[in-house]
Design brief:
Elements lengths: L2 E7 L3 H12 L3 E8 L6 H14 L7 E3 L13 H4 L23 H11 L4 E5 L4 H9 L3 H4 L2 E5 L15 H5 L1 H10 L4 E4 L1 H6 L4 H8 L4 H18 L3 H4 L10 H10 L4 E11 L10 E4 L10 E7 L1 H11 L2
Parallel strand pairs: 1-2, 1-4, 2-3, 4-5, 5-6, 6-9
Antiparallel strand pairs: 7-8, 7-9
Helix pairs in contact: 1-13, 1-14, 4-5, 5-8
Bound molecules: calcium ion (CA).
Calcium ion (CA) binds next to helix 1.
InterPro entries: Inosine/uridine_hydrolase_dom, IUN_hydrolase, Ribo_hydro-like
GO molecular function, one term: hydrolase activity, hydrolyzing N-glycosyl compounds
Family: Belongs to the IUNH family.
Length: 319
């Protein structure tokens, strides 16, 4: 049976990589892609999804515009990493127009699709969690109608990539991350920032991957040139000395887990939440290692994976 995925993105370069992985997987049916601000403005993230679908000849997948700002406060700028437009600021004169977007709002689409296929749909959330939080506010029963949720975000060792202790997706909208971690009671799998950094691919793999002679690989090489340069220079300081060794496509880890149940080889089953008030820690994922919160719904926090499987899934994505 195919895995039915509804993908929520803030389409930067690694979101594009994750979407292309899902499209290439014969075991996946994508029922829609919902968009959120994050790596760029909402308008850009919507356009980026359409550009990815265009290069994959999959424009029939419906794309829904969602939240343009977090629940509280203003957007966090992520433009330094994926370029101002979210996909490396390369010209794309053939980009599809925004008229191809669905008229339905992303939050309404999430609720409708979950109602149409109760117990079957897995949400893959690889941007700020604003759309997911608004959806559960509109229908508190939503988590019961989902099969599972896969999230890229948060952290386990207070090693921030955006603030001292905070990971980008959670820091963008701490309230939304808090709502999702506390109210999505369906099986929830999290690929944290530290987890993705601890299982990097090699730069040799990256070059072999983007140098495949295909339309998709040429597109990927073009859009990832900006973030490649960034992660090999300035961005090295995002990670810290001991983890500066490779190519990390953060969102692809969450997607690989949703696509292939054998990808994750180790998880910790723990309660998690998000700090909302700390002056240094707002947006940090809090891991309740000793179960003091006594949370009924525990989360599967990924701690190890099959990197060979990830490479195979990513290679297939650009064929
Ligand atoms: Ca993302």
């Amino acid at each position: 049976m195919k895995k039915i995925l509804l993908i929520d993105v803030d389409c930067g370069v690694d979101d594009a990589q994750a979407i292309m992985m899902a499209i290439a997987s014969p075991s996946v049916e994508i029922v829609g892609i919902t968009c959120c601000y994050g790596n760029s403005l909402l308008e850009n993230t919507c356009r980026n999804v359409l550009r990815v679908l265009h290069v994959c000849d999959k424009l029939e997948i419906p794309v829904y515009p969602g939240a343009s700002a977090p629940i509280l406060g203003g957007p966090v700028s992520g433009a330094f990493y994926h370029g101002k437009d979210g996909l490396g600021d390369v010209p794309d004169p053939g980009a599809p127009g925004l008229d191809l977007l669905q008229k339905e709002h992303a939050v309404l689409a999430i609720l409708r699709i979950a109602n149409e296929r109760p117990g079957q749909v897995s949400l893959v959330a690889i941007g700020p969690l604003t759309n997911l939080a608004l959806a559960v506010r509109m229908d508190p029963e939503l988590p019961k109608k989902l099969k599972s949720v896969f999230i890229m975000g948060g952290n386990t060792e207070s090693r921030g990539n955006t603030t001292v202790c905070g990971e980008f997706n959670f820091v963008c909208d701490p309230e939304a991350a808090y709502i999702v971690l506390n109210e999505y009671t369906c099986p929830t799998y999290i690929a944290t920032w530290e987890f993705t950094c601890s299982c990097p691919l090699t730069w040799e793999f990256y070059h072999e991957w983007v140098d495949q002679n295909t339309k998709k690989a040429r597109f990927m090489k073009k859009i990832s040139a900006h973030s490649l340069e960034f992660s090999q220079t300035l961005g090295r300081d995002l990670i810290g000395e001991e983890w500066r060794s490779g190519f990390v496509s953060c969102d692809s880890y969450a997607m690989a887990a949703a696509t292939d149940e054998n990808f994750i080889t180790e998880v910790k089953v723990v309660g998690v939440s998000v700090e909302l008030q700390g002056s240094l820690t707002r947006g940090m994922m809090v891991v309740d290692w000793t179960d003091k919160l006594k949370k009924a719904n525990k989360t599967f926090v990924m701690t190890n994976c099959d990197v060979g499987k990830l490479q195979a899934l990513m290679m297939a994505a650009l064929k």
